[in-house]
């Protein structure tokens, strides 16, 4: 199942997007403080998730919602 594989791939590092749970985030401008960009969903903000279990749940729900929307 694709959703499970994508969720397992998250376990690379401890910073995750709060919108989609992805770890494909970049520190946008270090001089401006903690501003992060998610390369998967476009999130832009100061809040990130460092709890891996929470990130996995967020990611799972995000991917399920995305799959439902693409089915239409």
In words, what does this structure look like?
With 72 residues, this protein is of the alpha+beta class. It is built from 2 helices and 3 strands. Strands 1-2-3 form a 3-stranded antiparallel beta sheet, with no helix packed on it. α1 runs antiparallel to α2 (52-71). The longest helix is centred in the last third of the chain and has 20 residues, at 52-71. It is globular. The mean pLDDT is 84.
Query: Low-confidence parts lasting 5 or more residues at pLDDT below 50?
Result: none
Residue-averaged pLDDT, rounded?
84
Helix content: 25-40%
Biggest sheet layout = 3 strands, antiparallel
| Ends apart, CA distance between termini | 20 Å
Question: Could you give a quick summary of the protein structure above?
Answer:
By secondary structure, this protein is of the alpha+beta class.
Keywords:
11% strand; 2 helices; alpha+beta
